[in-house]
Write a structure and sequence with these properties.
11 helices; 269 residues; binds 2-phosphoglycolic acid; alpha/beta
Length: 269
């Protein structure tokens, strides 16, 4: 009998699956979802949920001691001050957040966030001990125009320049915009090709790029997760719709671990 934690420790990168609840939930529904998720655990993969700001105290209370982390979906690029409606990274840290998503395409598109603003958010998140999950991804038109690589490189390059070698402390999520919430997933090989480009770009900036976790996001479900997570540079997922159902999300988390074990040639038997 192999000790699961020693198997996990032997993996080059521990898989990470993060639920992005977006603007969904209610106090009652969240409590039920998290109770079901807790009882589905523990997970060998690292698991976290990113909830709307007002739910953070409830989520922290529900998940305390479960091994499941929590975080937010955005933070301000400013430290504090006259920024009505914004929430600072320091405030998120006070609620025990481990992660904060920055640069989600819904923020870039609906709130006009530039590559530099996203990079500034990543910098300020790190300075408060949070791990930013930096999202990159091309739109439908950019995809059709063959611009995927240049778009994601441009988006990541602002972050690399702003963070320097500290870029190794972030998580990157590749989310093709055309795959978000549409039920259209990128083919695993397509996503892998983009992940390989991103890891090469990170390797030019940090000697620790091989240890960094790169997630795929965009219509990930329990049934397509394993094929995606089997790809060599895909270390887990950022999961929207499927994170709102405990059974679907926990199956996705297990798929991430199964894929990691399979690709490393290790078994937990
Ligand atoms: P989806 O969302 O899984 O519902 O496509 C993913 C995301 O936007 O992070």
């Amino acid at each position: 009998m192999v000790n699961p934690s020693s198997v996990v420790a032997a993996l080059p990168r521990r898989p990470l699956v993060v639920g992005n609840w977006k603007m969904n939930g209610s106090r009652v529904a969240n409590g039920e979802l998290l109770a079901a998720l807790r009882s589905a655990g523990p997970f060998d993969a690292e698991v976290a949920v990113c909830c709307p700001f007002p739910y953070l105290p409830d989520v922290a209370l529900s998940l305390q001691g479960s091994g499941i982390g929590w975080g937010a979906q955005d933070c301000s690029s400013h430290e504090s001050g006259a920024y009505t409606g914004e929430v600072s990274a320091g405030m998120l840290a006070e609620f025990g957040c481990r992660y904060v998503i920055v640069g989600h395409s819904e923020r870039r598109v609906h709130h006009g966030e530039s590559d530099q603003v996203v990079a500034d958010k990543a910098r300020i998140a790190l300075s408060h001990g949070l791990t930013p999950i930096v999202c990159v991804g091309e739109s439908d038109a950019e995809y059709e125009g063959g611009l995927t690589e240049s778009v994601v490189k441009r988006q990541l390059s602002a972050v690399v320049h702003t963070l320097g070698h500290c870029v190794s402390q972030i998580v990157v999520a590749y989310e093709p915009v055309w795959a978000i919430g549409t039920g259209k997933t990128a083919l695993p090989e397509q996503a892998q090709a983009v992940h390989a480009v991103l890891r090469a770009q990170l390797a030019a900036a940090s000697t620790r790029a091989a240890e960094m976790r790169l997630l795929y996001g965009g219509s990930v479900t329990a049934s397509n997760a394993q094929a995606m997570f089997l790809q060599p540079d895909i270390d887990g997922g950022l999961v929207g719709g499927a994170s709102l159902k405990a059974s679907e999300f926990s199956a996705t988390c297990r798929a991430a671990m199964a894929a990691a074990l399979e690709s490393s040639g290790k078994s937990k038997k």
